[in-house]
Amino acid sequence: MKLSELINKYYSVSIIGMSKNAGKTTVLNKLIGELSERKMILAITSVGRDGESTDVLTITPKPEIFVPKGTLAATAKKLLPFCTATVEILHSTGIPTPLGEIIIIRTLSSGYIQIAGPSIIEQLKTVNQLFKKFGANKILIDGALSRRSLCSTAVSDATILSSGASYSLDIDETVADTAFAVKMLSLPVEKGIFTKSSKTYVFYYADGQKTESDDTTEISKTKPKTVYVNGGLTDGIIKTFITKNIDIEGVVFVVNDSSAIFLTEKYYDAFTQRGAILRVISDVNLVAVTVNPVSAYGYLYNAEEYITKIQNLVAIPVFNVEKDYE
Amino acid sequence: MNNVTYEQKKAVGLKFILDNLCPVSAYGIEKAKKLGFYLPAQLKELDIELNNIQKACDTLEKFENEYAELTHTLSCANNIIKTITKCASSALDDVELFEIKIYLLLLIKIKKTFDKINKTANFTDINFSDLTKALNIVDPEKNRIATFYVPSSLSSKLSELRQSKTKIEQQLSVTAKNAANSLVEKHTELAKQEEAEENRLRAVMSANLSPYAEQMRQNADAIANLDLIIAKAKLAKKYGAIMPDIITHKKITAKNVFNPMIAENLKERNAEFTPISFSVESGATVITGANMGGKSVALKTLALNILLAQMGFFVFAQKLSMPLFDFCALAVTDTERTDRGLSSFGGEIARLNETYQKTKTEFGLIIIDELAKGTNALEGQEIFAATAQALNGKDSISVLTTHYDGVAKYANKHYQVLGLQNLDENYIPSKNIDENIQYLAKKMNYGLKEVPLTSYAPKEAFSICVALGLDREILDKIKIDH
């Protein structure tokens, strides 16, 4: 099965990378190629432009995403002159970015386009609605792991995670971290209303009561049913559970989304071994992992080994961007 | 006029009215934020504005569909004044030319609907000029679609470049990725040349547009004006406002004037606002009457409607005739100045002096609620009497309320709040204070009646105390004959 077939039923699809050069752009370009063969009107945007905006202002950016004629895109105004495709302006959104307002364009020829889209979920929703209005059949979002809250199911029906050899010289480290990222991105949703607080935790009890606290030891004393973690869940917090021997068995910990989880696998395991459960308020629908065995730093993994090792650890399909696509 | 503060606008209910004014275009919303007052020298402009509102009121129903369409179209108008200004002097980019095109397309739509209404309404000084020629510059192929690109038909060079690019694109689509490098390079080079040629053409378009910049700006003003006139007319319909009669005679005559904010507050307490009728002229008018806020309501209602008229709004009355004032000095409850570090009495006197100086050279409306109530009764009464006497000798129209007795004789007119009417002698006060207040509010008549200058204020405080259920041990010690 081709990756483009796997995402057939999803209207908006985002792609996020484990690191730079994980093959995200390759995946995007391949999807664009395959989907446009099926005469689909594609709409493309990205979430922000991580760490690249300075490059854009100083040097001419390298062409990245090649699109056919008739493609829709949402991108920053200052990037328009760098598109080699001839473009038509459809709408000015009023959404500001460091590179100017976000503009909805349509390509009048094929060519490379430069994309820098919104960086707030509400803005991405607006852009998605405009794409729909202008007749898009499918939306592709160039996502970012650091902004994975913008890949939540509220704006992206499905998400693809790209893993690449550039992540680490050590294949086992790349495999383990990729599998762990998949686990974190697949955490189930906890339904309910969680209120923001100035305190670290909001405790919810079985009888409907609710208290707020910064004191971890209260979990042992009062045994809440659910704990909403305000901000990030870190190794440090788990360390406190261990050193103070706090009873967290059966307690459901809730974070906003997986971007609020700053746990290493070791501490996550310690957390679950103590019987605690981790859930998110907004989830990501992760449907596939892609691997790129070629590193930008001049080495490569054994593709077979790489793909098998990951596939053994995750339940979703794994694609080799080089092999499956060449 | 422009010294009316935010707190005063809030206190008299002007903010409430402005919040209920709903312009829909970016230009109208902008203008509504900066509404000023028409001064006596601008009588002609005010007259045009008020008459335009009347024309809108008269046509709102008959052209309901046209107005709905117009409102929708106006609501699509974004503020592109910056872009218009830029086009007068420098080249616009793709997105700015897009904005201009959208704006010009919108203007055509507005003009079309407006003309339909205007045949009957005949608005004064609202004109949308024909900018088809400007539109043709940004839409040379005359497709009239709300998108923008530089069309190939504008230059043979651009057309050739795009054809060459297309050829490469076709080759690219059948070339393996590893063999495509030189094609991609060629394509990128052509795209650069295309961008340069587009830039040149955009500069030409911008230069051609620049003579129309002034007209585009004037049309934006027309959008703002029309939008506000429609909003004011809708507001007038909503609350039943009428056109004020602006006269040169220094006299305000009001018949059944009301204050929508206070009326709404009363409605929440199941009480009704009694419209007020009165006439005041040069010199001082004193309003006396019971507690329960009747006097302040009269003052706030007067202030609101005079301010509205001078801002070019319809007024909330059955009839209102008034002159235009050079200034309006408001001293109504909860507007005491606190920023001067003086006591509330000190602030009051400083303000009074400031106002009084103005009356020596200008014609104003002076509204003072309970002057000198914060000081001792004996001196307070003296201060009030002297002020009323002094203001009575001026050209300006002053309206003062007081609970002091026997001071109205220094004014030239005396009104009393009708106050509590038909109090039930057998009313047994409830333990719930709110119920008692509601009972009193229902019995309260905020209407005014003119009485002789020497009339004394009705004594109602005792009846209020009874109705509120004040302990008998206190009531029985009150030794006034009632």
List the helices and strands and how they pair.
The complex is a heterodimer of chains A (about 325) and B (about 475).
Chain A: H1 3-6, E1 12-17, H2 24-37, E2 42-46, H3 53-58, E3 65-67, E4 72-76, E5 87-92, E6 102-107, E7 111-113, H4 121-133, E8 138-142, E9 158-164, H5 171-185, E10 201-204, E11 210-213, H6 218-222, E12 226-229, E13 233-234, H7 235-243, E14 252-255, E15 261-262, H8 265-273, E16 277-280, E17 286-292, H9 303-313, E18 318-320
Parallel strand pairs in A: 1-8, 1-9, 2-4, 2-8, 9-17, 12-14, 13-15, 14-16, 17-18
Antiparallel strand pairs in A: 3-7, 4-6, 5-6, 10-11, 10-12
Helix pairs in contact in A: 5-9, 7-8
Chain B: H1 6-12, H2 14-20, H3 26-33, H4 43-59, H5 64-75, H6 81-87, H7 94-121, H8 132-138, H9 156-173, H10 181-209, H11 213-239, E1 245-246, E2 251-257, H12 260-268, E3 276-281, E4 283-288, H13 294-310, E5 319-322, E6 327-331, H14 344-359, E7 364-368, H15 377-392, E8 397-401, E9 413-420, H16 433-443, E10 444-450, H17 461-467, H18 472-475
Parallel strand pairs in B: 1-5, 4-8, 4-9, 6-7, 7-8
Antiparallel strand pairs in B: 2-3, 2-5, 9-10
Helix pairs in contact in B: 3-11, 4-11, 5-7, 6-11, 7-8, 9-10
List keywords for this structure.
heterodimer, A: 326 residues, alpha/beta, nine-stranded mixed beta sheet, five-stranded mixed beta sheet, 9 helices, globular, B: 482 residues, four-stranded mixed beta sheet, 51% helix
